[in-house]
Each structure stands twice: as structure tokens, then as C-alpha cells.
Amino acid sequence: MNRTLFRTRIKFCGLTRPGDVRLASELGVDAIGFVFAPKSPRRVEAEEARAMRHALAPLVDAVALFMDNPVEEVREVIRHVRPSLLQFHGGEDDAFCRGFGLPYMKAVAMGDPNAGNALDLHRRYPTASGFLFDSHAEGEAGGSGRAFDWSRVPTGMHKPFMLAGGLTPDNVFDAICATLPWGVDVSSGIETAPGLKDGDKMRHFVEQVRRADCHND
Ligand SMILES: O=C(O)c1ccccc1N[C@@H]1O[C@H](COP(=O)(O)O)[C@@H](O)[C@H]1O
User: Per the database record, which ranges form the N-(5'phosphoribosyl) anthranilate isomerase (PRAI) domain (predicted)?
Assistant: First the structure.
């Protein structure tokens, strides 16, 4: 892909407070994520996410994150929150993910030594809008703050991919230069505690992504 004029997309995930949603919008992030994965310390209920969605500025996407949630629960979230994109972190297959009539992104567990190659991922998830490479092992939750070896990002990806897992303001510049992702997704690296985002870290993260974009021109 020609990177001239390219802008790495930024997603802040696991927000639980309207003030953090407002600041994320002001900092110019492209999307924010609400976590509905069971047992996540960042999990919010559909009603809470709906209220936070009202704090979101126009042209900023709301992403709903699931991990093997029952179909009824996914439907309920969609009805309340109206996300523009779904993100699946569990063992969901393509039929499940596309069944809600919304674009979706499939997370790939890079902590698994057999994480799929590009061909395999495109074949298993033909209707995915994109993929998200995260550090967890298959069946484990994300949001661990742990990075993986970026050289393992599959080559030959035809669809956009996001890089995630242990990104911080201090390493995101190197991560982008190493993998040239469509976007980056961060949760722990901009927090003081799970679900509580830190304004300075959020700002610093965005600055470092912009710096990488200038560097890669
Ligand atoms: O954030 C969570 O609690 C979570 C739970 C279950 C699946 C995914 C989860 N978060 C996603 O994990 C990655 C990386 O997070 P981190 O930056 O390493 O903390 C990111 O995509 C989160 O959205």
C-alpha cells in the first residue's frame, strides 16, 4: 500500500466513563470500543454504553467488542448502542460474525503458535472487514497489556489489519514502523486502572501515532 498521505487509524478500547469518551473524540481518534466480553474488568452494560455513545462526537465510530457472547446479547447491544462495527475475540466463525448485518473485525490470537497465516484467515473469515492481531492465546481474553513479537504479523494481508496488544505511548511509534498496520488499538497502555483512561497517556499515544505517520511518509 502506498503510505503517502496515509493516516494510521486509532482505536481506544475499553472506555467506561463519558469524560474519557469526550477526550478521545477531541484528540481525534477514529473509534472507541465498548467491551461486552464476559468477565472483562472493562465490561459495560448495554445501557451504560448507550449513555456513553451520546458523548461521542460525530464521525467517531463506536465499536462493540464481544467474546463468545450469546447471540441474544449481541443483538441487545446492537439495539441499544448502535455500533458501526463489531469486534469478535472468541471462537466465533464467519457465519456468526456476519449474522448481525454489521461490518465486523475478527481478532486473531497471536499468543497461539498456530495463529493463522493470511491465506487461512481470509478463507475462514471471507466477510470480515478486517483483522486485529492481539497477543492473547486462543480462548484467553485480551486487554492484557502484553505485546507479541511483531515480526509474526502475517505477510500478504489483503484486508486492513489493526495491531493490538501491549501498545503504549512509548512503543507505538516502533510498532507502526515495524508492521505498517491500518490502525492501532490500545486499552491498558492508556489506563491508570482497568477501564479508567488517563488523559496524558491518551494524548501522548495520539502524538506518537502522528509522529510515526510523518516518519513513514
Ligand atoms: O479489554 C478487555 O478487557 C478485553 C477483554 C476480552 C477481549 C479483548 C479485550 N480487549 C482488547 O484487547 C486488545 C489489547 O488490549 P491491551 O492494549 O493489551 O490492553 C485490544 O484490542 C482491546 O480492545
Answer: 11-208
Look at ligand 1, atom 7, and give the residue with the nearest C-alpha. 142
Q: How far is the CA of 209 from the centre of ligand 1 (A)?
A: 19
Compute the chain's Rg from CA coordinates.
16
Q: Which residues pair with 109 in a beta bridge?
A: 134
pTM attached to this predicted model? 0.96
- Among candidate residues 123, 134, 204, the one with its CA nearest the CA of residue 162: 134
Residue 217 is predicted with a pLDDT of 62
Reported ipTM exceeds the 0.90 cut: yes
Residue-range definition of the domain harbouring residue 151: 9-216
Q: Which residues are known catalytic residues?
A: 13, 134
pLDDT of res. 7: 95
Distance 165 CA to ligand 1 centre (A): 7
Is the residue at 4 inside a domain?
no
